[in-house]
Amino acid sequence: MRRDTIATGFPVGDRVIAMNRHGMWQELAVVPANRTFPIPDGMSFEEAAALPINYMTAYMMLFEMANLRPGKSVLIHMAAGGVGIAATQLCQTVKDVTIFGTASASKHETISQGGVTHPIDYRTKDYVTEIRKISPKGVDIVLDPLGGSDTQKGFGLLKPLGMLIVFGAANCVTGQKKNLLAMAKTWYNQLTLNTLKLMQTNKAISGFHLGYIRDEELFEGTLVKLLELYQQGKIKPHIDSSYHFEEVADAMKRMHDRQNIGKVILLPEPKKSEEKPESKAEAAENVEKAEAAVSEKKEDAAEEVEAGKD
Ligand SMILES: NC(=O)c1ccc[n+]([C@@H]2O[C@H](COP(=O)([O-])OP(=O)(O)OC[C@H]3O[C@@H](n4cnc5c(N)ncnc54)[C@H](OP(=O)(O)O)[C@@H]3O)[C@@H](O)[C@H]2O)c1
């Protein structure tokens, strides 16, 4: 997005990251000046779009809430997703952090290369058993975007003084259509504890939602720190794929089918016509036009020949 605002004092045409809670899937957006941040040199528009939500979420959870320190262990669910990759990279900015990451087996090579110490295929294996085999005492931090029974498992896996952070309820979504049964199951299985139990277990539970961060200083400060980490080469968004606005259904399908590794980006500019695949009707119409043009030229040529004879 290019900044077009007089209030900020930045020249018109500056490349900026612009953030708002909603209404950003459009070519032109109006946002408060303090929600725009200059894009560093060398950062592409795609990277700039991929960075804020994923990295701010991961950063605030790991460093503001869980106080990640050297030698600790972290369980990252959806490790091949946008937030998962961001969390993995941020964990690596701290010395000797062990990362357990759950993901489909086909994504393990990518997440291992990205820094996950122990990738676990949650589809075919019980991740609790796998983690206990490696670390019988469990883990220090669990980042939980799943909810339901996974929150219970995560709490069970925490070491004393460990922290579980709930930041999503992906278990409610099982396919392209709304699944009331999955929602009810997730709700029924959610972790309920009283504060006495928390005290007796020496564990912490926390919730996080970036959309409800109202502290502008915290918000701005975090993004500025992340841009610095990017410039130092310590973090780099992983772009899975980019789609033009008119291809949004394909982009959503890729995510619903859980095909993506990293961030799926929407590009506001329309697809160039030569990139567009022709529909059958358009192709037939174009063939007809071409044939008509050829026969018109033939007729003209024949007329010219006839005229030349005269
Ligand atoms: N609270 C906040 O502020 C905040 C901010 C950003 C995101 N979130 C939440 O964080 C989660 C991750 O977001 P993201 O952008 O990183 O996602 P993403 O990039 O779309 O990653 C999704 C991947 O997670 C895996 N997965 C595992 N269990 C899943 C399930 N039950 N439903 C869907 N996918 C599942 C799938 O990969 P496999 O092939 O490995 O199964 C899927 O491809 C989402 O639930 C989102 O709502 C919360």
TrEMBL record:
Keywords, in A-Z order: Oxidoreductase
Sequence ranges of Basic and acidic residues compositional bias: 269-310
Highest rank taxon of the organism: Eukaryota
GO CC, one annotated term: mitochondrial outer membrane
InterPro entries per the UniProt record, alphabetical: ER (IPR020843), GroES-like_sf (IPR011032), NAD(P)-bd_dom_sf (IPR036291), SV-ATPase_mito-regulator (IPR052100)
SUPFAM superfamilies reported in the protein's UniProt record: GroES-like (SSF50129), NAD(P)-binding Rossmann-fold domains (SSF51735)
SMART domains registered for this protein in UniProt: PKS_ER
GO terms classed as biological process: negative regulation of mitochondrial fusion
Keyword Oxidoreductase: yes
Example GO molecular function: oxidoreductase activity
Region of interest: Disordered: 267-310
Domain Enoyl reductase (ER): 2-266
Protein name according to UniProt: Enoyl reductase (ER) domain-containing protein
UniProt source species: Gambusia affinis
